[in-house]
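== Sequence entry ==
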Amino acid sequence: MAKTKVQVIGAGIVIACAVIGGTRYYLNQSSSSFFPADAEFSQSLDMSKATGSEQSLSHSLGNTDVQVIIKSVKYVDYQSVYGPLPGSLEGAPLPTGLSVDSDGQLIPTAALQRLFDYFLTTVGEEPLDRVVERIREYLDVQLDEPALSQANQVLDTYLAMKEAIIAMEAEWSEEVAQGGPRPNFQDIFDRKKALRLELLGEEVYEAFYQRDEQMDEYTLRKLTILKDEELTQEEKNQQLAEIEQVLPEDLQQKKQEERALEQLEEDIRVAQAQGASDTEIYQMRLEVMGAEKANRFQRADLAKRGWDTRVTEYRNERNQILNSTLSEDDKQSQIEALREAHFSGRELMRIPVIDRMKDQQETLN
């Protein structure tokens, strides 16, 4: 029976994206620091096992019993022999959520990679050696033996892998600078994947990279299909559906749902053009979306129809004013009064924009 030790974590506020060393990072709005794209962050950190509170919860994950350890402490309690964290991390929550089995053996997970990358983003503010020692210190807080030694070993191989990829990219750049061929995306993907698998081993590789690389592989194959001018649109659609098999199951399901919705919208456009009633459109949505979403779309349709009717009525009355013999000042005054009679609140801010757009369209027509 396996047991997993997990620490509850929160999410940071992110506003921008960057790619650093092949890894996607987002910018934390409050701290101006970068974090891995799929990162989850603890709301607080206790650098002493003697402080904080713990709560154990039992869950069932398939045939595996999981123990969840929740330690709630404040970020300001972070204590390190190396002093405070670098300025870019000030005020930002730290990652946690490491897993071990019932024998205390480390279970490699994406959370472990997130922990490594969290500290490694500060290289440049601190020397790499110092950053690595911070990681080891933090691992010592989170883990006991034998998981601690195993995590440190994974860290060593992870750093070696990062260095190997940097060296490989530098070699590519030098070859290109000397007139050599530029490697294509597929070649870059394949060589990085092989290097990661070789240095990290299958278990760690799958935990750290498999999901992202499945997405990358799907994207590359999708681009190849879309650029193939010899394929018909129907053939492209068929192949695009087939390559979804490389995606994780949850993303396959999401893609299937997206296609179903796209087809539904196309069917609705055709039905409306053929004069389908509101009841018929509702039934079409009900069969694909279910009652809750179908009701929501029906309400939105009715609201849009009411809005369009009001705009049309306003525009007709506005045209009468514009075509009258009134002075320009009187025309403008009556149009303002007309707007206030038909609309209110934020609607009044939308109408001048709608007027400009529709006036331009009518001029072009």
Q: What stands out?
A: The longest strand covers residues 53-61. Strands lie at 14-20, 23-28, 34-36, 53-61, 64-72, 99-100, 106-107. The chain has eleven helices and seven strands. The chain has a mean pLDDT of 76.
